[in-house]
C-alpha cells in the first residue's frame, strides 16, 4: 500500500469566527474532528500540524500524543495574508515524503471513507492526473458578476436538471506529490482531478453561521452524512 503524509495548518487568529480552530464543537475542540479522521486512514503514515500557536500545540499533544507531529510556523509565514501554498512549500521542504494530502480544521464533517476513496483515486490515476482536489457540484443557473450566464442561456428557460453542472473548489482536501507541487508551487497541479463531494459533508466554516450549521449537522448525524 502506498503511503501519504497529511498536512493540517492551524493558526491562532481567526478574523470572522474568533478562536474557531480550537473552539468547542460538539464537545471537542474543532481541530479534533479532522485529526481523528485522518488518524483512522490506513494510507496516511504521518500527520503534521503547522501552527503559530503554543496553545494549539499543547492541546494537540494532549489529544493526539503519538499520532500528530507539530511544525512551529516561522514568523515569516505568520499572518492572515500569507498564502497557504507558501506554508505547504515550507512543510514539504522539511518533511521526507513523496505524496501529501492537505486539509483544514474547518471541515469537521469530512470523514475517513471519503479521504480513503480520494487517496485511492489519486494513486490509481497518477498516469493521467498529477493532483486531486475536492469540489462541490452546482447544478443551478449560474451567472458572472455582470449577468452573463455561465452554464445556460438566460433567454432559454430549461429545467435545472438539464443544465451543465459547474464545480466549486470547496477547500476540503488537496492531494499532490512533492514533484507536482514544485512544478507550480501550488497544491493544485497542472493536470488535476476534481473529486466531487457530498455538499453537506463539504461544509467549510468561514462565517459564524457556518459554525452553527456544521455543528447541528454533526450532532444530528454523528458526523456521518
Quick take:
The chain is α/β, with parallel strands linked by helices. Helix content is 29%, strand content 24%.
Query: What is the fold-level CATH name, i.e. the topology?
Result: Spore Coat Polysaccharide Biosynthesis Protein SpsA, Chain A
Task: Report helical residue fraction.
Answer: 25-40%
Strand content: 15-25%
CATH architecture grouping? Alpha-Beta Complex
> Main β-sheet: number of strands, strand sense, barrel status?
7 strands, mixed
Number of helices: 6
Task: State Rg.
Answer: 18 Å
What would you call the structural class? alpha/beta
Strand order of the largest sheet: 5-4-1-6-8-7-9
Looking at how many chains there are and whether they match, the oligomeric state comes to single chain
What is the averaged pLDDT score?
94
Instruction: Name the helix and strand elements from N-terminus to C-terminus, one letter apiece.
Output: EEEHEHEHEHEEHEH
Q: Would you report the number of β strands? A: 9
Q: Please tell me the total number of domains.
A: 1
Task: Show unreliable segments.
Answer: none
Reading off the top of the CATH hierarchy, the class is best stated as Alpha Beta
Terminal Cα separation, in Å?
27 Å
Q: What characteristic shape results from the CA principal axes? A: globular
CATH superfamily: Spore Coat Polysaccharide Biosynthesis Protein SpsA, Chain A
Amino acid at each position: 500500500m502506498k503511503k501519504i503524509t497529511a498536512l493540517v495548518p492551524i493558526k491562532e487568529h481567526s478574523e470572522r469566527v474568533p478562536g474557531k480552530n480550537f473552539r468547542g464543537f460538539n464537545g471537542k475542540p474543532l481541530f479534533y474532528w479532522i485529526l481523528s479522521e485522518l488518524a483512522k486512514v490506513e494510507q496516511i503514515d504521518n500527520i503534521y500540524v503547522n501552527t503559530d500557536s503554543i496553545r494549539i500545540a499543547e492541546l494537540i499533544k494532549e489529544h493526539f500524543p503519538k499520532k500528530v507531529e507539530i511544525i512551529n510556523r516561522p514568523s515569516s509565514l505568520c499572518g492572515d495574508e500569507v498564502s497557504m501554498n507558501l506554508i505547504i512549500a515550507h512543510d514539504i521542504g522539511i518533511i521526507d515524503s513523496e505524496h501529501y494530502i492537505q486539509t483544514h480544521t474547518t471541515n469537521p464533517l469530512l470523514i475517513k471513507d471519503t479521504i480513503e476513496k480520494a487517496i485511492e483515486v489519486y494513486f490509481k490515476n497518477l498516469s493521467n492526473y498529477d493532483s486531486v482536489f475536492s469540489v462541490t457540484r452546482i447544478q443551478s443557473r449560474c451567472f458572472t458578476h455582470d449577468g452573463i450566464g455561465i452554464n445556460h442561456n438566460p433567454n432559454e428557460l430549461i429545467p435545472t436538471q438539464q443544465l451543465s453542472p459547474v464545480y466549486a473548489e470547496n477547500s476540503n482536501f488537496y492531494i499532490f506529490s512533492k514533484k507536482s507541487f514544485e512544478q507550480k508551487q501550488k497544491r493544485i497541479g497542472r493536470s488535476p482531478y476534481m473529486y466531487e463531494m457530498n455538499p453537506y459533508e463539504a461544509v467549510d466554516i468561514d462565517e459564524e453561521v457556518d459554525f452553527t450549521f456544521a455543528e447541528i449537522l454533526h450532532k444530528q448525524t454523528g458526523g456521518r452524512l
